[in-house]
Design brief:
This protein has a domain at 17-68. It is 58% helix and 0% strand. It is elongated, with a radius of gyration of 15 Å. It has 79 residues and is mostly helical.
Length: 79
């Protein structure tokens, strides 16, 4: 029984995560004038990177914990 990551991020969710993630990376790491606290800016940027990673991998670990999926491909049940 190995750990298999099944896609649980659907296409719309993926596009939304990419857009929000890119905006958060911009706000957190690139445009320093929007957030004055460096630690908060870093956390915002890291949260954006996590969203981008989840969008590219199409796997969200928090969705797995909550039992949520936005992926409409129901042919992943090949256990």
């Amino acid at each position: 029984m190995g750990l298999r990551w099944q896609p649980n991020v659907g296409r719309f969710d993926q596009i939304l995560r990419l857009g929000i993630g890119a905006a958060l990376v911009w706000v957190g790491f690139i445009d320093a004038s929007l957030i004055n606290d460096r630690w908060v800016a870093t956390l915002v940027g890291l949260f954006g990177l996590l969203n981008i990673a989840a969008a590219l991998l199409r796997v969200c670990p928090f969705y797995n914990l909550a039992g949520i999926t936005t992926n409409n491909d129901n042919d992943n049940d090949n256990d």
